[in-house]
Amino acid sequence: MTRVLLVSTYDLGHQSFGLASPAAWLAADGAEVSCLDLAVQTLDEAVVRAADLVAFYLPMHTATRIAADLIPRVRLLNPRARLCAYGLYAPVNRDLLHELGVDAVIGGEFEEPLAALVRGDGEHDTVSLARQDFLVPSRQDLPTLDRYAHLTLPDGTTRTVGYTEATRGCKHLCRHCPIVPVYGGRFRVVQRDVVLADIRQQIAAGAQHITFGDPDFFNGPAHALALVRSIHEEFPELTYDVTIKVEHLVANLDRMSVLRDTGCIMITSAVESVDERILEIFDKQHSRADFLKVVNGLREVGIHLNPTFVAFTPWTSLEGYMAFLDEIDELDLVASVAPIQYAIRLLIPEGSKLLELADVQNLVEPFDRTRLCYPWRHPDPAVDALQEAVFALVAEATERRESRAAVFDAVRPLVAAQVGGPTVTNPRPIRTSRPVPQLSEPWYCCAEPTEDQRISPI
Ligand code: SF4
């Protein structure tokens, strides 16, 4: 019997679908599967030494950076094991992973290729977009849900959070998005009965809220709506949150009441910028006006919007950054924006579609093997200096557990000092004092790494 160790290094505070799903496939094939989630567990060297195959799950940039440090250690601990890397960030970092000693690199829909690799009839390097018949994820070997991010509701109560995925990939082609180089505008569905069974087992394990990790929950709205109706019928007390792009929110505002009525309390949306030029460069297919429609539309329906931004790009000016802060304040979104969003710097990983732009080619430095990205400098050094100052401020404020409003009020003078504007929006709007639902681990993805890899939300 092949002994397989699946390792996750970081998955944004979730009990990882990317461990649980392949664990079910491999066990069904007769493998002896162990899982290690190093976000909440320490490396068990005995388990590493015993494994015939160690597979690292790389769903995001931070996870890949941590794994890149870990892989040589695992190789030393167990020189006879085959090493594999799988997940979104594996194929785009293929060369580096091979140099580190990884034998097989699997991207896209990874369960079947991983199972084939363990059986001995799989390809070593593959990106599969084949439609799969999913199995119910196997979660019994994972740390309990109370070890992961929790949800705090506006009334101060907390909820245990489970995590699942109803689709993977995305049918859109935003230039800065790490999904595009792998899925190329396609998405794949996890069958409804599998998602329901996965949610059922997480509720039995204590989940009171589910985060759907789909890159865009409304890539397949019929699938999404049928799913949440079924879940709500069975578990009327369950709440959930999803991620939906601005364009889809605008097109489906009339369906938001269905989400609300089935337990959706929060929608994360990658707004990225309020600057039309930057939205165009990213090919986001939405405008600032669309963002405003979404803010108002979700407010009317009563679902909290959790907007995310790429605050610093090569095209961000000091004045543009100030305008971004003003917009957040004027729209009364200060309580809704996690402080890390003010500091996020555009990440340009290997394979990024942004690299096709001459403007970007002229701007980036050679690939940095430690940071796993193409570093860039802003043409105006004052913008880079501001980003560093904002990042340091956010990190310190997070340590002190300051409120979102306090962080916002501290960020604004940093830029006001540079552009000579007022330190508060004038006239300053009356901010809502109503608290908002918050997950205890922030969403961030397209962030160029700084020395700190994780910041908690406030
Ligand atoms: S940024 Fe969002 S909408 Fe755009 S391609 Fe990526 S997942 Fe899809």
From TrEMBL:
Keyword DNA-binding: no
InterPro entries the UniProt entry points to: BchE-like, Cobalamin-bd, Elp3/MiaA/NifB-like_rSAM, rSAM, rSAM_CUAEP, rSAM_horseshoe, rSAM_sf
SUPFAM superfamilies in alphabetical order: Radical SAM enzymes
Domain Radical SAM core: 156-373
Coiled coil: none
Cofactor(s) the protein needs: [4Fe-4S] cluster
Highest taxon, organism lineage: Bacteria
CDD domains the UniProt entry points to: Radical_SAM (cd01335)
Keywords annotated in UniProt: Iron, Iron-sulfur, Metal-binding, S-adenosyl-L-methionine
Cross-referenced PANTHER family: ANAEROBIC MAGNESIUM-PROTOPORPHYRIN IX MONOMETHYL ESTER CYCLASE-RELATED (PTHR43409), BLL1977 PROTEIN (PTHR43409:SF7)
Stated name of the protein: Radical SAM protein
Species this protein is from: Phytohabitans aurantiacus
